[in-house]
Amino acid sequence: MNTKKFEMRFQSPELRALLWPDKKPDAQLKTEKLIQNLLGIAEEKIEKAITLFFEALTSDLIHKSSCSKLKKEFSNQVKQLKGKTAEIAVKVAQVFEEKLKQSKKKKAKMPSMLSGAQIPKVFDRFPLEDVTLCKMRARQGELFADNYKKAKAILRELKKRKALDPELQESKDQDEGLVTKQLKKRPPFELNASARIFEAYDKLNANDVRMGNNRSYLLSQCPKSAVSAGLLYDVALQQNVSVFISSLEASEAKGRCNNFWTHEKLTKIPLQNGWKIEHHVSSIIAKGAKEQDGIRDPQLIETKLVATRKTAAGEEEARVLTHIHYDGWRDRTAAPDEKLLQKLVDRIEELQKEGVKDAPFEVNCKGGIGRTGTIVAIHWIRQKIYEELEKNVGLDVITINIPELIYAMRKQRKSLVSEKEQLVQIYQATASFYERLKAQNSGGTSIYRS
Question: Which whole number is the average pLDDT over 307-334?
Fold first, then answer.
């Protein structure tokens, strides 16, 4: 290795001040001689250790995970060094790490772009995405065009804004599960009933997502075990949930407690608070068009469950739970049949009218973010449209801002609506619902929520 090149690593004022705080010439000379000795004693090891942080400093692609890897590699290198060699390596790393932090701060101040506009001070506003219902179909086409170019840009922007939003700087670990220490501390989750219920339990990756006007959802990943499935049922029953939606394929997530609503799985699921859940009947309520690859016909399967227990007064309490399974919807994709997706939301609305007023409904898929977020977004948009109609706002001029909706959801559960195809499908489903209401209005049928 070139000696001059190595010595140049130590020429920054910050590093020299750290190595020689007393600024005594003899101390500086002594350390420089030590550095020269290092070149002959442990040249390769000290070079590798220092280079790890030097490269991190100059990299434009550095991020949290790679920084952690660099720290781990550096620690391994330091363990192999002894005495002053290790001491100097640590000091060098400290300076480089500080510079790395400064570099990240500068990057954070750089404006991000969406449709040519700089990030506003209000992170949850996307004014350029205010779209009236009559123009929703056209916007869907724009997002789909050129291999989803604009849809990808929106998803990138959502991710960047969430990373820079000051309100969320202390909540980066929010989705490790309901019972993480960080989750309990943050304002959006202080009122999270699920978090309170599960304080004594191990992990269950689920969150309450509240969208205002008493609309709330219990969103979760597929339970990892029978115990997790039991906890999910427990919190659902405590929150008066009577509707469960799953969008996993029947054969998906074999290592988890998939199909936790079937008779076979229910017999193995431990329940809390004296509850027992029995499988009563399942039926196919709708079928969709066959997928292009011919794997299966997507379909909606509705299952009726009955939960029973004895109250403290010795009386029998019974609740009917309805589970709807959208089978044939593969992970990281849009729903294979959009009409079937509309029928799913139709059925959710019907069941909500029959259940406890303002009770949330539960939605899950493999990770509880992509397909789950798509279903919730479409349902929420429908309720928003109903509300605007009840205010006598004209159907054609009702404005929906889908990126703002997704951002609000992601502040409560990470990465909801994770794929470009799913984002476009939300626009598609909104446009289709508008066209359906338009046709009903033309035919003299009421378009108001009954």
Answer: 93
CA-closest candidate to residue 48, choices 75, 20, 15, 13: 75
Please state, in angstroms and as integers, the Cα–Cα distance from residue 426 to each residue in 43, 137, 346, 380, 444, following that order: 58, 11, 15, 11, 27
Residue 6 to residue 38: CA distance in whole angstroms: 11
Q: Could you tell me the two tokens for 182?
A: 């960080």
| Full-model pTM | 0.70
| Residues 304 and 320: beta-carbon distance below 8 Å | yes
Pairing of strands 216-221, 361-365: parallel
Contact 406, 434 (CB under 8 A): no
Residue range 364-368: average pLDDT? 93
pLDDT higher at 228 or 182 = 228
* Average pLDDT over the chain, rounded to an integer: 76
**Which of 433-441's residues contact partners 24+ apart within 8 Å by CB, and which partners?**
433/342, 433/381, 433/382, 433/385, 434/133, 434/134, 434/136, 434/385, 434/395, 435/137, 436/342, 437/385, 437/395, 438/395, 441/395
More confident residue, 88 or 183: 88
